Amino acid sequence: MTSDRRYLLERVDDAAVVQLYADGFASLPLREKVLTWHLYLAALSGRDIYYDQRHELGLEMRAVLEAIVTHPEGIDGKVLQEVRRYTKLFWINSGPYNNVTARKFVLRLTKQELVDAAAAAVRSGAELSRRRNESVEQLIDRLAPMFLDASVDPTVTNKTPGQGRDILKESANNLYSGVNASHLEHFTERYGLNSRLTADNGRLVEEVYRIGGRYDREIRRIVGHLRDALPFATSSMADAIRALIRFYETGEDADRVAYDIAWVRDQESPVDTINGFIEVYMDPRGVKGAWEGIVSYVNEAKTKDIQALAANAQWFEDRMPWDARFRKPDVAGVTARAIEVVVETGDSGPVTAVGINLPNDQAIREKYGSKSVSLANVSEAYERSTPEAMRVEFSWSREEAERAKAWGGFAQELTTAMHEVIGHGSGRMAPGVTEPPHRLLGEQYSSIEEARADLVALYFLPDAKLVELGIVPADSHEQIVATEYEYYVRNALVQLRRVREGTQIEEDHMRNRQMIVNWLRAHTSAVEARQRDGNTYYVMVDAAAFREGAGRLLAEVQRIKGEGDLAAARDLFETYGVHFDPALRDEIVARVDRLKLPSYTGFVMPRLAARRDESGTIVDVEISYPCDLETQMLEYSAFARRDDVLEPPTAAR
Ligand SMILES: [Zn+2]
Ligand 1 centre and the CA of 420: distance in Å? Predict the structure, then answer.
């Protein structure tokens, strides 16, 4: 069944569109299926919040695009083709900014062509929500600079705008409106994570994301579906859902803390959800949360290995290669699981991570621990959709390419698990440092934290402990280490394909990976840059030197976090992580394009449908795979307007 499955569905510019499968769902008990169903609807209900957070015109732009795509009659074929290309990218990236590079991409049409297409769609019956008395032409006039002009609001998140420029002013997201970073110097936010901050004649106002506040309509729907889920949840999960509802009602930080704690305490439920304002990568200050919704169930078989890591978290903590004052004396409740994702929306999809570790609140992590998951079906879909040429093109030797083929999937899943379970969960702040690290490190925090987690994984990967725990086969250990180290250094080159403009890297995970490899090149003999036939290769030549260097760098990165040493963090990333040689990037892009290799992936999620009996009771929840981005995205957008889109009327069942 799995062999003739379609993973790679289509290519849109440098993006791949891949179908995600969730095989175990059909055999879950009915109660868990019904629970998943309600959480699924809750996850879809918040999707538009994220579009709005990305840019204040994001939803209006999407409405125009979807009107045209669904009403193509009478529109010039070339124009329509271009609108479709752009719309697909827009859906994959939840708005007009590339998810990886943070830069805007544009529609390659003239304003008149766009006006004509929108007018034709309206003539064919498309409904466009316009401002009062606004003509189609005026609407397009208002949106045109965002659609067509790359120089208007060019970057969604700009953490390093250059000397004398303001990180908030230079970032086009909608987490702030009219606010400069300097406004914040004498202002204490009460709703740091969950508000939009606006400046009204110099007076700062927090528009709180809660019922009765900003995103009232979406949050009410989320809460409605969460309430529907309650009767089907385990008691510890029901506690967490009730706490989440309370937080959505009040928006108060104390309720967010209560929710985080209740969520971490629920370690047993086979089904889980992440729903809310979670990750802070979009905010250049690293404070405001982007909305996301994830629903998943546990993959028992793959969870065994990860739990072996988690159960031994203290063993690893005691051997961290950093100063003893940063070691946690008792690592609390690190849990880790492999999960199968059913849906990811908002900040978490269609472009998704392969591992998640939450909550982000450092104080809660230190006291209550954290939950770590690796997204097993996402990793599998990545692996199954990666073209063979990707491994071969950037490998120095045939052996390297063969190792990558044999062990790449395994090594990367293991490294991801270690990153999440013993990486993010580890370490503590220096005695006497009471401010949380994200406040001390500001725009450098996320990159430092990602570097720390990666380095923990890289440092312990060769450790015999992994064999002892039964996670790694002894006779292949060396090969697995080589595979991962080789992949890691190759990636520093290959990832440059994602940043097709400019000469600096914005995304935190990319910065950290660039930094680590460049630091190793400068300070160890582990990595060599070589040339062959005009092509550049990064070659991992000494695994022992690699590990030693990773340990040395990890000690420094932990010190930076633990002391909140912003100057050192800035220096580290400015020297090794942010800037790159555009000529090298151009070479990589040319090689990748010659082979038609994708730069990033957007996933089409599984689709759920509830089946009910005469009385309206759900008797089954069926899973299917749309295998089409457009179908799914239009359905999601329709669901934002009408609740019944995903449930056919009784007669149709
Ligand atoms: Zn991470």
Answer: 6
